[in-house]
């Protein structure tokens, strides 16, 4: 019976559920799920499986905006039980749980914190959008761009890891909002070519 890896897995969901924000980083979601249930990140991770970064959980907890969590299939199954959400649904919302990013290794649950995400950028989610969803704490996204603009609230955020503010209000920089709208229109109209057109225009403006 001790050979049965299922023995070590969680049996029941945590009492309080947390909804993932579409595009959220796994680390951000796991952090919120732990905190919602009154657990430190370290206590939570003990339930998800074994991780090579266990030595610096404290750092991970302190800087969730700077690191991303990856896991293998068994780790994903554990997380699905704890979060009370089907693994497939978690994979839909959390890009780093995509099949292409799952760690190898079948038997025991594994998780791994990387200081640089494998793909994409860790960018802070607009705090006002977070308030609208009632998330209660900072959310990090795994973004394909190294920045995000919230047109609804006029906020800019990026993947800089300095001590500055996580988000910058764009009230005094309406040009940025206009440029972002134009970029979205180009992308909608021309697909990837639109993105490239905008990138070209950006390079021309820089030089
Ligand atoms: Zn917003």
Automatic annotation (TrEMBL):
Domain TniQ: 15-155
Protein name: TniQ family protein
InterPro entries: TniQ
Pfam families on file: TniQ
Highest rank taxon of the organism: Bacteria
């Amino acid at each position: 019976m001790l050979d049965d890896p299922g023995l070590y897995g969680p049996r029941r969901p945590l009492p309080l559920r947390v909804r993932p924000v579409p595009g959220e980083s796994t680390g951000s979601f796991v952090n919120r799920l732990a905190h919602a249930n009154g657990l430190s990140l370290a206590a939570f991770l003990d339930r998800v499986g074994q991780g090579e970064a266990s030595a610096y959980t404290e750092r991970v907890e302190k800087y969730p905006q700077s690191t991303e969590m990856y896991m293998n299939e068994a780790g994903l199954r554990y997380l699905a039980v704890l979060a009370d959400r089907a693994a497939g649904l978690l994979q839909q919302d959390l890009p780093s749980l995509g099949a292409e990013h799952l760690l190898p290794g079948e038997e025991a649950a594994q998780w791994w914190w990387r200081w640089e995400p494998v793909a994409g950028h860790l960018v802070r989610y607009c705090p006002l959008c977070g308030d609208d969803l009632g998330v209660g704490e900072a959310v990090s996204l795994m973004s394909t761009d190294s920045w995000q603009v919230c047109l609804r609230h006029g906020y800019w955020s990026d993947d800089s890891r300095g001590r500055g503010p996580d988000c910058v209000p764009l009230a005094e920089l309406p040009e940025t909002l206009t440029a972002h709208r134009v970029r979205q229109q180009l992308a909608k109209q021309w697909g990837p070519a639109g993105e490239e057109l905008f990138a070209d225009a950006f390079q021309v403006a820089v030089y």
